[in-house]
């Protein structure tokens, strides 16, 4: 999956500037007091989003099992907290894996518990935290299953067991789907919760755009005016106007294909074209290639062509080997970002708003996108089969 940079805007999707000015809150102070027990630690590390939406990073000493963190926020915001013992050498892995996520609110807050069992620490003084704790209880079994599948997946990777890797991927996807269903029910039941406003942003990649819009439309003016509301509004607008969205003209591009030959999207006008976004390391992509071969052989004489757009910019050898191994050299292939530059304006994944692999985009002979399949912006692979049949079997 691919995460895009969020834009912060004050006038989106019909939000009048007067409403923004009216409901925007002034920054307020929070004071988080830590009262720890059990394992002794000497420092607490933290980061959180300030009232402007920018992240504040810091560390405070823990003296006599107590610490104080204070700052300025205008609304409830998620914070990440972790601890260091005396003499411990910190690493990025330690910081991100052994942590406690909490929701701060303006006012006085208290964090209690034994830092050796960081997940069991309790935060009081925050209504949003109560909602977060309840949602976590509902998904606890799912998270445990996901951790187990993750360990299995790592083992199968070491063993290079492709069949088991695919099974693990399917299991993990099933867990994610269950968690998504629980979270979405929460979003609809709590439209004006800051927890909803925060968590929905992580679902832009995997949830249908209509569902995302429904959550946003349920917000009251106050939530829409927060930086979280503005982020969601910006993403919705970006998707609606994106070059990879059905109804829009496919974003033009030129590239060198897998054989080093010049390829231009404009050369395919007059044909129906599938842009197949994939990667050599993407198990579902590789698993779906035999069916793509069937579709290509069935409709190529009737005017269908395919350009495979690979996300193998750092490993062209693996890309070329996968094309040979899967027998898909029968159609065109390019790298989506051959230089693997983060901010490359010619990155085809960014141009087409690709967040999930595999994703397939169907372009008509005039260059207009008539379908998107495999991610939250469109239909399924079965839907692609149906639309191709309706086009070519008239």
> What is the number of independent domains?
3
Assign the CATH topology of the largest domain.
Glutaredoxin
Query: What is the gyration radius calculated from CA atoms?
Result: 24 Å
What is the CATH C level class of the largest domain, in words?
Answer: Alpha Beta
Helix content: 25-40%
Mean pLDDT: 87
Can you summarize this structure?
It is built from twelve helices and 15 strands. With about 400 residues, the chain is of the alpha+beta class.
Structure, explained:
This protein is an alpha+beta fold. It folds into 3 domains: 102 residues, Immunoglobulin-like (Sandwich); 113 residues, no CATH class; 139 residues, Glutaredoxin, CATH 3.40.30.10. It is built from 12 helices and 15 strands. The protein has a 5-stranded mixed β-sheet with strand order 13-12-11-14-15, with helices on one face. A 4-stranded mixed β-sheet has the order 4-1-7-8, covered by helices on one side. α3 runs antiparallel to α4 and α6 runs antiparallel to α8. The N terminus is likely disordered.
């Amino acid at each position: 999956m691919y995460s895009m940079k969020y834009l912060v805007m004050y006038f989106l999707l019909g939000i009048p500037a007067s409403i923004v000015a009216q409901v925007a809150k002034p920054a307020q102070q929070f004071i988080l007091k830590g009262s720890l027990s059990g394992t002794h630690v000497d420092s607490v590390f933290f980061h959180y989003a300030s009232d402007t939406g920018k992240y504040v990073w810091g560390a405070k000493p823990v003296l006599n099992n107590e610490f104080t963190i204070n700052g300025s926020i205008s609304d409830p915001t998620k914070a990440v907290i972790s601890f260091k013992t005396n003499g411990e050498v910190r690493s990025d892995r330690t910081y991100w894996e052994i942590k406690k996520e909490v929701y701060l609110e303006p006012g006085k807050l208290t964090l209690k518990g034994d830092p050796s069992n960081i997940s069991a620490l309790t935060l009081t003084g925050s209504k949003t935290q109560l909602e977060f704790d309840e949602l976590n209880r509902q998904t606890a079994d799912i998270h445990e299953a996901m951790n187990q599948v993750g360990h299995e997946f790592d083992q199968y990777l070491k063993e290079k067991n492709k069949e088991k890797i695919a099974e693990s991927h399917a299991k993990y996807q099933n867990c994610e789907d269950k968690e998504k269903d629980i979270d979405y029910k929460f979003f609809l039941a709590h439209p004006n919760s800051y927890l909803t406003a925060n968590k929905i942003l992580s679902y832009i990649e995997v949830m249908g755009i209509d569902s995302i819009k429904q959550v946003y439309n349920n917000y009251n003016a106050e939530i829409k005016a927060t930086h979280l509301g503005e982020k969601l509004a910006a993403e919705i607008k970006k998707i609606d106007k994106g070059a990879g969205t059905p109804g829009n003209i496919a974003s033009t591009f030129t590239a060198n294909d897998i054989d080093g030959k010049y390829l231009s999207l404009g050369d395919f006008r007059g044909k129906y074209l599938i842009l197949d976004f994939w990667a050599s390391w993407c198990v579902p992509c590789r698993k779906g290639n035999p069916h793509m071969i069937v579709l290509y052989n069935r409709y190529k004489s009737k005017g269908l062509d395919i350009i495979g757009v690979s996300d193998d910019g750092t490993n062209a050898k693996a890309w070329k080997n996968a094309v040979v191994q899967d027998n898909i050299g029968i159609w065109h292939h390019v790298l989506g970002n051959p230089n693997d530059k983060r901010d490359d304006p010619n990155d085809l994944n960014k141009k087409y708003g690709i967040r999930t692999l595999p994703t397939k985009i169907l372009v008509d002979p005039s260059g207009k996108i008539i379908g998107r399949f495999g991610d939250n912006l469109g239909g399924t692979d079965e839907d692609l089969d149906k639309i191709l049949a309706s086009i070519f079997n008239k």
